[in-house]
Design goal:
heterodimer, A: about 150 residues, alpha+beta, Ubiquitin-like (UB roll), DNA polymerase, domain 1, 2 domains, 5 helices, B: about 290 residues, Uridine Diphospho-n-acetylenolpyruvylglucosamine Reductase, domain 3, Enolase-like, domain 1, 3 domains, 4-stranded antiparallel beta sheet, 14 strands
Chain lengths: ~150, ~290
Amino acid sequence: MIPLDFTLNGRGCRAEAPAHWTVLDLLRDGLALTGTKDGCGEGVCGTCTVLLDGEPVRACLILAARLRGRTLITVEGLEQDGEPGALQATFARAGAVQCGFCTPGMLLSARALLAANPSPTEREVREALAGNLCRCTGYAKIIEAVLAAAGGR
Amino acid sequence: MRLPPFALDEPESVPEAVEVLARLDGESRVIAGGTALVPTMRLGLIRPDRLVSLHRIEGLRAIRVERGALDVGATATLAALAGHGAVRSGWPLLARAAASVATPAIRSTATLGGNLCYAEAASDPAPALLCLDAQVRVADAMGERVVPIGEFFTDFYETAIVPGEIVTGIRVPSAPPGARSSYVRFCPRSAEDKPLIGVAALVTLDGSGRVSQVRIALGGAAPTPILARRAAAALTGEGLTEAAIRSAAEAAAAEADPLSDLMGSAEYRREMIRVWVRRTLLSLRVASGLEL
């Protein structure tokens, strides 16, 4: 087992993981944080996207050992005082959630974009969300939600 | 689905990494970003006993300009390369190719060294590096050697790297003064897919508007990324005319050795090489201030 000290959703986390576990294995099976979804397992669908030192990465592709000393944000970290955070609330208001399976990856990709670029164009939103597959809504409302969150609406 | 179990080494320096690789038996693999290796393991195509991860080797991530050449550490990510100011201004062909790969959450993890070692025939960065005449730095327990990028890819998913070696960096000379370049990728399905065909071109015109130097490189056109030498020869000494561009595109299609797979047949690929080499060169004609 590999001992791991890292920052998870703003708090110190001490965990251990076998060498062959990915970040996704550790989150879902080691830490019971099931907000990060297990989709394709090969980095294509985007639903396991999390932020590692602020950058969007695929939890299914990264070995858990790489977390040592780093900062990880998952969808659970977007809550504020036990309530949905502003970005989550905007997704709900815009009707950008249908089955919800892609939502964690969409939210974290959007959060990374807005942190780097607070006033993105629609094209920039589309590029930032590329690689997050939604099979329900057809993306229009998701893109509207990110633009609305950027505009503070 | 879990990965099959393996042991993990996390060396903190290149000498430590090559020493670990030299004394291992069984099947070991070097892992950088893991965006190619992890899915390959999950599919059961390889089953290594041990992975040697390069993620703790700080110096291997650096991107530097030294005496006019760009030096990219093997584990610099494609996102870091695409967003680096000096790369964007001095090596725009490479910056553009790196920015073309997959999606943001892959580019943040995938590394330039890993992309080359995976040796995907339709690699986006490889044609850019072929045009720029890059050199790959390789180390093992005995020392270092340099492999010209033109000799790095040896066959379908095969490279000149032998067991015990790791890629430590990629050195990219400056393009000739006044050179114009472009990288264009053709994806018949979604933009995040690997391209069916990728075309990189680097063209320098002399004072009378004739092509003095040109390199054209192709991804997805053969078992490895290739230089289209006959296409370049067809253009050298000519003006960037419609006729010269057309004959260069015909030459590229003729010298390619495309494979058939689920993305497209060899015949379709050959036709698309002709189309996209022509379009790429036409875009450079426009960029050079000539009329389309």
